[in-house]
Write a structure and sequence with these properties.
Shape: elongated
Radius of gyration: 21 Å
Number of strands: 9
Order of helices and strands: HHHHHEEHEHEHEEHHEHEE
Helix content: 25-40%
Distance between the termini: 69 Å
Structural class: alpha/beta
Largest sheet: 7 strands, mixed
């Protein structure tokens, strides 16, 4: 049984960090700070300036439970219930991936095009396939006030989370949730079709980090035998839903550049750019209009 946590802020934070360090979490100092600040409603500045600040016993109990979950391998943002993405706070649920900084690469890749279309036509229609938390769609909507987006997901739970996020961010009027197996129930045409699809080969799921394998939904990870099935579906079916001068943007695994490029090129698309994440890995491919 772990020692009783202190009920003053500074010692509480130190003990939280010590517990997580003993559990060999990746970044115990950051995780401890996030957990303590979240549940206590305090800030880093308060911990430094007022370390003897009293923390209620019931709050300490919540922090204790959260630390136990983190020590057991649950990702810290799952415990907090939200994650920041492109400056937005997005609620999480068991049916959604945690949006990660790598995916911001996709937002940056298509944002200039979205802005240009919106400026020229007064609107830019976005289709976000596998929307999850709504991260990609909502980030683009937050940056372009005249854009609209339809977030597609097979999971009703994910769509409920995306809808909640849209409401919390004041973007509900421009965001539509659609339960569909890829394009099955999609209608209309879009200027941008974006996707962070499942791209892990089925047999590699077991080799993922515990925090991913045990807590991210398999539906959002498993891309089939070679990890490329979603790209084949998108390349084969997107043409009916893409405006003439539209763009398709997809996140990829860092080794999939050539394979995904070939899938779309064979389907008649013109490469429109490759983008690397902050780690220097291939992360996003953009494709332009279909060849005549």
């Amino acid at each position: 049984m772990a020692d009783q946590l202190p009920e003053t802020l500074g010692p509480l934070l130190r003990e939280a960090q010590a517990r997580l360090a003993a559990a060999v979490t990746n970044d115990p100092a950051l995780d401890a700070r996030l957990i303590v600040e979240h549940f206590s409603g305090t800030t880093r500045t308060q911990a430094i300036a007022d370390p003897e600040r009293k923390v209620d016993a019931d709050i300490v109990a919540e922090i204790d439970a959260a630390l136990r979950r983190r020590a057991g391998g649950e990702p810290v943002h799952r415990i907090l219930g939200y994650r920041e993405f492109y400056g937005l706070r997005l609620s999480l649920s068991p049916e959604t991936l945690e949006p990660r900084p790598d995916t911001e690469t996709l937002v940056e890749a298509v944002l200039p095009f979205v802005k240009a279309i919106a400026a020229r036509e007064g609107v830019c229609r976005i289709l976000d396939l596998g929307t999850g938390t709504g991260a990609i769609a909502l980030a683009l909507l937050s940056a372009v006030p005249t854009a609209t987006a339809t977030g597609v997901d097979l999971s009703a739970g994910a769509l409920a989370t995306a809808t909640r996020n849209a409401g919390q961010l004041g973007l509900a009027r421009r965001f539509t949730a659609l339960q569909s197996d890829w394009f099955e129930k999609v209608s209309g045409r879009y200027h941008v079709i974006a996707a962070n699809p499942p791209y892990i080969p089925s047999e590699d799921i077991g080799n993922l980090q515990d925090e991913v394998r045990n807590f991210d939904p398999r539906l959002a990870l498993d891309g089939g035998a070679d990890g490329l099935n979603p790209y084949r579906i998108i390349a084969a079916e997107a043409a009916r839903f893409l405006e003439t001068e539209g763009r398709i943007a997809v996140e990829i695994g860092h080794t999939q550049h050539d394979q995904v490029s070939e899938i779309f090129t064979v389907a008649g698309y013109v490469p429109g750019g490759a983008f690397r994440d902050l780690g220097g890995n291939d992360r996003v491919l953009v494709f332009e209009r279909i060849k005549p």
